[in-house]
Amino acid sequence: MDDMQVAFCPFCGKHLIRLTPFCCFCGRSLAFLNAIAHTEEPAVPGTSGDGPDLLQQCIKYFHEGHSYDVIVDMMSSLHGVNISLRSLKSKLNGAGLYRRKDYSSTNAIIRAIRLELRGPGQLFGYRTMWQVLKQKYNLRVKRDRVMNLLRELNPRGCERRARRRFVRRTYHSMGPNYMWHADGYDKLKPFGFALSGCIDGFSRKVLWLTWGPSNNDPSVIGHYFLSCVRNLSLVPMRLRTDCGTENGIMAAIQCTLRHHHRDYYSGASSHMYGSSTNNQRIESWWSIFREASHRIRPSRTASCPGGELYYLPHRFDSRDCGFQVEQTQLDAFPEAHLTRAPCGDANMQEYLDLAMESNQLQKAEDWQSATELYLKLKEITRL
């Protein structure tokens, strides 16, 4: 496949004029398409019932935990290879694979369990750990043996699981601009205010909080992101969003700006998709934003200056993780020059301007006058 051929994104299905490293619609990496285009189609393995391909497939199903009968059925149904149960056992035994003998050494099992306990495996019970040891590490071990070893190596975890206690995860950040969390806020959409916000995960500095007629347009969200990057003259090490279509262009811009870097999170790894509920930094701020809408009396003794965590990370044994970006790089994106009417519709904007002129209404200068203007225009236009 060359750049002149018709191409489609396998994730969003959009037509691509040319094959690029990232989809300009959904932001997913398309590097594998180039590899497929320059790779010959592999030959179909034989189905004669013999050969290394057959043995490797049987070994694969064996390590996945399938029983002998299921392996025979899968070889017949999926690969068109008819093999008897006795022949299957003979081939697996010849490869040194048995169900109930030649168990793995205790040291190998302990090393694998300790490796899993360093990550999400600390939440596993002995049944899940037993499956992981078989499928991931190809170890042959009894389930009771895993239960006893897990009780010795992770006694606190076993106690918490017995008491049905949750393990709270810890948020880790290397410094400001290590991770930006972006999301939209739809609670005020019935009133015509679609909010979009982004927060720095380390310092919790609000990078942008912008309202507009829509927060579902990918071009608008991309424009917000480019404006923030232009103001700060840097791009974050990582960006986290939910899987909404409005984040596609922003994700593509982030990956493109980080494509030429050489760190661990460069290129496609610089953007992270996740569920909206797990994007805790921005979701927590939306909760504070919603709950802190009441009026409080002023206090002369209250002092809470901001910006120290973000601008002075060395005072907190941290560092700035952002990457400098040239302004000319940002001008290459069409979203950098996006212009839209404040209400989202040019005809509606013209109608509202005419209504203000006819009723001698002035533009708002503060939030009180903006509220009055909004209510008057709503009454005049009956919208």
Cα end-to-end separation: 52 Å
Total of DSSP H or I helical runs spanning 4+ residues: 15
Question: How big a fraction of the residues is strand?
Answer: 5-15%
Radius of gyration: 29 Å
Structural class: alpha/beta
The sequence of SSEs as H and E is EEHHHHHHHHEEEHEEHEHHEHHH
Which shape, going by the Cα principal axes?
Answer: elongated
Any idea of the CATH topology of the largest domain? Nucleotidyltransferase, domain 5
> So what's the CATH class of the largest domain?
Alpha Beta
Q: Please state the second-level CATH architecture of the largest domain.
A: 2-Layer Sandwich
The whole-number mean of residue pLDDT values reads 83
InterPro entries: Integrase_dom_put (IPR058913)
Pfam families: rva_4
Protein name: Integrase core domain-containing protein
Structural account:
The chain is an alpha/beta fold and 383 residues long. It folds into five domains: 7-37; 52-94; 106-162; 179-291 and 313-337, Nucleotidyltransferase, domain 5, CATH 3.30.420; 346-381, no CATH class. Helices cover 41% and strands 9% of the residues. It has 15 helices and nine strands. The strands form three sheets. A five-stranded mixed β-sheet has the order 5-4-3-7-8, sandwiched between helices. A two-stranded antiparallel sheet has the order 1-2. Strand 4 and strand 5 (206-212) form a beta hairpin. Helix 5 crosses helix 7, helix 6 (126-135) crosses helix 7 (143-153) and helix 9 packs parallel to helix 10 (248-257).
